[in-house]
Design a protein that fits this description.
Blueprint lengths: L1 H8 L1 H20 L25 H17 L1
Helix pairs in contact: 1-2
Amino acid sequence: MFLATASTKRPIAMSCLLIALIGLGLNSFRKIPIENMPAVDIPYVAVITTWVGASPEDIEKDVTKTIEDAVSG
């Protein structure tokens, strides 16, 4: 309730306070070292295989699993 009352009675003072807080926040954000926000690469590999005339289970068992195991290490 204090903030609402202060905002209506002293709008210029509250606006200055808000601008100061935003300025301090932006200044602090700029000073954060880059190590605290590293770029993260999530490894992702898509394996698409085709084998005409084979069932999906055979393709997965004989081809796709072999490729996935070789790629994943």
